[in-house]
Amino acid sequence: MKIFKGTPVSPGVAEGYVYLYQAFSCDVYETYVQSGEETTALSSYERAVRAADDELLHLIASFSAGNADKAKIFAAHREILADEEMDEEIRSAILSERQAADFAVNRVYTEFALLLSKVGDALIAARATDIRDVRNRLIRILHGETEKNLSTLQTPVVVVAHDLLPSDTATLDKKNVLAIVTEVGGTTSHSAILARSFGIPAVLGVPDVTEAFQDGIYAAVDAMSGEIYLEPDETVRRNIRKKRAAFLKDREDAARYLNDSGSLRDGTHIDIGLNIGSCAEVEPIRYCDFIGLFRTEFLYMQTDRLPDEEAQFSAYRDVLQQADGKPVTIRTLDVGGDKTLPGLSLPKEENPFLGCRALRLCLRNRDLFLTQLRAILRASVYGKLWVMFPMVGSLDDLRAAKEALAEAMRMLDQRGISYDKAVKTGVMIEIPSVALMAADVAAECDFASVGTNDLCQYLHAADRMNPDVKSYYQSFSPAMFRALRMIFDAFIAAGKPVSVCGELAGNPDAAPVLAGLGLRKFSMNAGSVAGVKRALRRFSLTEAQALAGQVCNLGTEHAVKELLAGLQSS
Amino acid sequence: MYAKTVVLKNASGLHARPASEFVACAKQFASKIYIKNLGDPEAVPANAKSIVRVLAAGIPVDTQIEISAEGEDETAAVDRLADLIETGLGED
Known about the structure:
Chain A has 23 helices and 16 strands. By secondary structure, chain A is an alpha/beta fold. Chain A folds into three domains: 2-22 and 149-253, Glucose Oxidase, domain 1; 38-142, Orthogonal Bundle (Enzyme I, Chain A, domain 2), CATH 1.10.274.10; 266-569, TIM Barrel, CATH 3.20.20.60.
């Protein structure tokens, strides 16, 4: 037995067999076969095509009726595999130019993918990704490797990886992932946020796991303590099972609060919001009061091309229609920093978190921004839509963003398309400069939401992706709570709604403190709702206010955490 | 060689499912079959049995297209494919 330790980012306990995930890298060299070997190369190509077709058929059959969309994608892959021209070109490259099968497949498929990616119609261009997928499948088979894919797991597994890209986690086969363990990442990385929203136990930032773990080895993951046991002994397994039972019991206990409205013990009402990244996550809205954060990045990560106005409009409209008339806060594109886009090449920056990200990037790429704003405005007639700008650092930013919105409105007016002319406009408060200007910002917008993850990193000058400065990234520091108090006070005084949509809002320990500071709108992942509702009910408004006052007067994060832990045990 | 000109009526052009229908139908014939976008002066005839070529032709709605075929069943193939396009390729 061996023990590894990392940062627990999504609570839970699990044990099972390891699935070592490495994104397939398509390493193909320009190789030719000896004269006389052409027919052997040809038959290995033919065998690979048959094997690929078998894999695809198997995949299609494995999807349930509810997964018709995924089945459709793989049916399209079969058509590509049977494409007459690509097939003919590969055959002729092998037979008359003596190219090796993998080289011929790579060359022809890559050429055709490029051809398709140049088509003006974005829907068609996006299919270039499918060609590349089929190409990778063929080359993998030709190289004698088995399939590694997180969207189509056959049995429940503990996923171990160096890192998971947002595109990996977005298509994750949730029901078959027992736990996630990665070498990089922390509490606020994308993998962590997604693991929490899916309720999958996860431990990130565990050094060297991909070298120590192999496929099929047994592992136990304690995502409460952050410990991972490789081939655990019987004593550990017994403890793990006990802990798992206790965790599930606590979650079940919290679940009894799920359908209650959010409130403090004395009845003070708290609006509970939902953070989502796609239409697939809207369902929990039935026990929430609003969508406090709809991240739009995922829409941009699914294809190599930027999504056009129509595609965005229909995605936003779907969410509005499913939201039951409850307000939906759409955050405009927030890329840069740790998030890159396949459809947009961004220059490499020395300090990406301090660079041209989010609103800054949108203001520089005006067409990109206007396309999204038009799509958002068009969706506004289908419900209550609020639009929110990320990374506002000054009144200049806010004014420029509002100007762009006004331009998008004029463009729609010219096309005679209707939209909600009174759509609420707000800012995400995550840069300390704008926190200091909160009163002025409140005067020029309709609402604000605090992104505590970025606020914490900028306030403490601690990169949230860098494990070496993890101890400096203190989301429970008195400085954080004092900054929050300043923001809440300014918006409350202006009579404008303010919420928190960062990780802090989903943390049960922080909940009474935030309520005591005046916060009445908490927005979080679906998995945190029950626990936060339960935590809020334990305090009356007077108690929460006293607690908040105490917390703000403390000197260190350690002291804050000690105080809050003491409340838990009493 | 036999050819016919028709107009594509599908609102979102010849993509995804309509393109699949078209290619699947073309594959039922023995003749060499081509589809050409007459709305694009630089377009070259695309192999109608290749899904990628047909998609890459990027044919939008209300475009004139020429379907041509050469081989033993050329007339039947062109008539059938022209008919398929005029009836909307299974889309409303």
